[in-house]
Amino acid sequence: MKSWFLALPQVLLLLVFAWVGKWLAQAWQLPVPGSLIGMGLLFLCLHRGWIRLRWVEAGAALLFSQMILFFVPAITGIMQYPWLLGIKGLLVLIVVVSGSAFVMISTGAVAERLFNLGEVKRRDSVEHG
């Protein structure tokens, strides 16, 4: 219970970023989801050091652990569209699975390159320092 109280302000901070992103998307009429812009802003703030990871880490972990609750309405909504369970649904499934696989593979490749780049920088600074 204590972790919920500690994570609540962090969840609110994450929501603020999502709301700011939605506001920017609406104000500038961008064809990008506002929540995605908000998470991009959060990433920028984390990268620049304006926001510390420990300020949002517990809240993000809490939301991530409860993620299935966010998908239940979408899953039950499928029942309104029985055609999704037929051949068209199979095509949608193929697109979703292949798209997810592409995202996971590309994210892994980028993360590995960034990690390796960081290792080289760390080794160079240790040898020269």
Can you describe this structure?
This protein is mainly alpha-helical and 129 residues long. It has helices spanning 2-27, 34-48, 57-65, 67-77, 87-128. The longest helix is centred in the C-terminal third of the chain and has 42 residues, at 87-128. The termini are far apart. 6% of the residues are buried. The model has no long low-confidence stretch (mean pLDDT 82).
Structural key phrases:
single chain; mainly alpha; 129 residues; 5 helices; globular
Short note summarizing the structure:
The protein is mainly α and 129 residues long. 80% of the residues lie in helices and 0% in strands. The longest helix is centred in the C-terminal third of the chain and has 42 residues, at 87-128.
Topology (elements, then pairings):
Blueprint: H1 2-27, H2 34-48, H3 57-65, H4 67-77, H5 87-128
Helix pairs in contact: 1-2, 1-3
Large-scale geometry: globular
Give the averaged pLDDT, no decimals: 82
- Low-pLDDT runs of 5+ residues are none
> Which structural class should the secondary elements be placed in?
mainly alpha
Major sheet attributes: none
- Secondary-structure element pattern, one letter each: HHHHH
Q: Approximately how much beta-strand content do the residues carry?
A: under 5%
- Helical fraction: over 70%
The first-to-last residue Cα distance is 46 Å
Strand segment tally: 0
For the CA atoms, what is the radius of gyration? 20 Å
Number of helices, counting only DSSP H or I runs of 4 residues or more:
5
